[in-house]
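User: Here's a chain of 142 residues. Predict its fold as tokens.
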Amino acid sequence: MSIDPKIIKFIRKNHVLSLSVITSDNLPWACNVFYVLDEERLNLYFLTELKTEHAKAMLIQPQVAGTIAVTPKTVAQIQGIQFQAQAKLLQGEQAKDAYDQYYRAFPFARVMKAPIWSLQLQQIKMTNNLLGFAHKTHWQRK
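Assistant: Prediction complete.
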């Protein structure tokens, strides 16, 4: 699962992603969540309650898409990734490991008793204009 280190560095440097799902009514829905990267598994972990629109949608349709981006002042500074992932509500030992990683990154989240989810990254396209206008780097899980 070789992935360009620039992609990993960018994901690690940030902490909020925009998540897009399809609801049970076949309508699009989006939200923002704090995440932590599991580099070994190439998973993103986040907390969300089962009652949220995006959680209900992911239980029915686990294929999701999202973005991680910075807010630049000029086009020359645009950096971000677009991704496709497989969402999963974690249980047992998987959940324990993911909570440990998440709470290390966000200790304040310990007061939330929300379930933890995994986004297993399937495909990434990174745009990084710092490397040249419209510079793209692609990765796909084998």
